[in-house]
Here is the input.
Amino acid sequence: MNYNPNTQADRRAMLETIGVQSVTELFADVPEKARYPKLNLPRPLSEMEMMAELTRMSDKNADAHHYACFMGAGAYNHFVPSVVGQMQMREEFYTAYTPYQPEVSQGTLQAMFEYQTMMAELTAMDVVNASHYDGATSIAEAALMACNAGRGRRKKVLVSPAVKPNYRAVMRTYFQGTDITVTGDEDPANDLEALKKMLDKDTACLALQTPNFFGELEPVQELADAVHAAGALLVVHVDPHSLGLFTPPGEYGADIVTAEGQALGNALNFGGPYLGIFAASKKYVRKMPGRLVGQTVDTKGRRGFVLTLSTREQHIRREKATSNICTNTGLVALGAAIYLAAMGKQGIRRVAELSYHKAHYAASQIDKLCNGYSLVTDKPFFKEFVIQCPKPVTEINRALLERQIIGGYDLGQRYPNRQNQMLVAVTEMNTRQQIDDFVAALKEVA
Amino acid sequence: MYESLLFEISSPGRTACSLPDLDVPEAELPSEFLRQEAVNLPEISELDLVRHYVRLSQKNYSVDSVFYPLGSCTMKYNPKVNEVAAAMPKFTATHPLQPEETVQGNLQLMYELQEAIKEIAGFADVSLQPAAGAHGEFAGVLIMRAYHLSRGDTQRNNMLIPDSAHGTNPASCAMSGFSVQQIPSDERGNIDLDALRAACNETTVGLMLTNPNTLGLFEENIEEIAKIVHDAGGLIYGDGANLNAMMGVARPGDLGIDVMHFNLHKTFSTPHGGGGPGSGPVGVVEKLRPFQPGPIVAKDGDSYTLKMPEQSIGAVKSFWGNFGVLLRAYTYIRMLGEDGLRLATEDAVLNANYLRVKVGKTCPVKYDRVCMHEFVSMGDIAEGIHTMDIAKRLIDYGFHPPTVYFPLIVHEALMIEPTETESKETLDAFADVLEKIAEEARENPELLHSAPHTTEVSRLDEVVAARKPVLRYKA
Here is the structure.
């Protein structure tokens, strides 16, 4: 198979116009010994064979349509209304590229402007960019931006140990070539009070996550004052669904807000593509990474949208740019925008409430089990909580799989002090029946 | 008339969502954490929402609607089977943290894609984790750094970058803590060898090479370049943006490239999504293998497992890679096979050269020799006419403009990449239109200055947008 329209007659006519005898002549600059290698690839498949092959592969997976899913830890199984996928997959959106020519990209540009607006409303922040790769890269770039905002004089990134371990790992990957240090998370017992005491004149930012990796809402009130008094910025990573119900970070003084936006209208997709949400307060807009869409007027005074403030970006500023990001996750952001518009003011709160109540029901039912299970979480939480299990989580999860249940995340993998602890996620997708079955299964497999 | 914004068509009480009733007892809400005012999101019926997005979409030019010869972006056709494949529920509804035994299909697909990219590009190892070209490039530069440090080579902190390079190259170096030294191009559009020799020393991290370069030219001295850099102890980074000119014709790994990223959304036909998502896997030669970002899928007998390379630079992303994009690229590679991929490259280069000869008559080509998958013309074809005027006038004739004003080393650049999926008739029509525009430029230049005329908005004021940024809607 190929998708080339050229016929042999076309090729002959084109070669003649170019003035060469054969296509191979066009590759004369390739060193002869490297030219036309043999590629050892499987034989090409027809479309029918391809679909059969993909069906065979995907049949080896367990998926959240056929299993009850209680796994979260940074990727969530929330409901995606049909209208989201149908609109997102309009060819005019998904087969276009970066809107470099605004007159023929008003669809993408206006959709991004609306995305920026709705995300700003959700987070109560001033400015939102047109997306990053995912939650991890967003929070890493937020810490980098905080260092740059301090004109590079502040080199310490304080991070809570209750920030998702992966995110902290990605931050360290990002900073390995710089003199920025990531600290504060060495002791898992460091809470926000302890972190506050570690603020000093070298601290660029304090980065936390709420609800944190364990699902708990962090006591963030009055935190911003302490951070700002030390001359640092407050970076807050949120679960966007939680903001349907809980105080948005813009209201308690966050300077930069990041989030994983996958669950806003996009499938789990085995980890990607996801959506890095990135918001900041107005005064740092010129330090922000990523693309921004702005409103303007055309030559006749009509409203239109363009990419703006691009002097921050790599294609203009090269090594002095605020980031190297170019391609982002525009289509996933579009999905999130359609999702937010479909849910609307009431829907976003309703999803958060359903998740909250169902999670609390599941937590209380598990806590009642007694046979070695108990609820570890003792602070207010949103849709995830931690349970102590009577045996290793991997063993329990294997037994749950036989009962068509995908269990929660094994915290012992990353936290030595949390052996046999499971992080359970519950969303509006989990029916009462699923929760009851899950609780009964836990009891059985203990 | 402009399109109303979502907020302007909102009316209290409308909704486009349908959620189930609560089927468990209500729990108490923690009052000290509650949001005081509901989120100010629009309230819209489903039909109004559909009309809004359908109409917005119609304001875009896209590959599925028009010829889109955006240089360096490889806007080839995105086969429909890719989309059907990527929407299969048993792929889309898998959670990245599920036990490995429950996602063997996903892991097998990723493993086979790793193997295919290794074979196509001639590398010892491929990591699929990076999310886009610039992301893979950043990972690649960190791999170079880790390699030098592992050898105790701590003084290497200077990266050499040709003046024709993408802006992401220097930006990725800056994020890795390296300084950047620009290497000029010679009169044939190649890297200036004398300048390269003079720049190479014990502080050299390596050279970031785009081949074919952004002028669409294959580096004629690639072997000599590799020797100069390697002799100085440096590594060669390959920017994979232009791999569409090489499939089945040359393998970067055979040409002395040590580490390279691949843009699956360019070469391997996955859609560009209005700005992303992409996918930027990294390939390396054997000696760089331990430093790869991870995890990477390994095959163990009949089963597949995720493994972190020993001295990995670390994870660069939350999970394992942009799986949905990988799935599309895998489908493309499996359906084309060796011959199909080679033919894609051959036709991409044939189409570019054909268009170079035809367009060159109207808009002169700066380095007029056989090109690869793209070429760079100049748009100042008449008194007072600029590249931007030509770009905007092309819109009136139903074409998406080429990349403009890049690469920076060509004055009034028009960077044109037709790709292999365009027909001779389309290329002829594009060349004819450029000829007509050139005529208009001489006879009625105002027609160009005020273009486009057929779109719902005319040229937009970017200065106002930047001076007084309005980045969100306010009632």
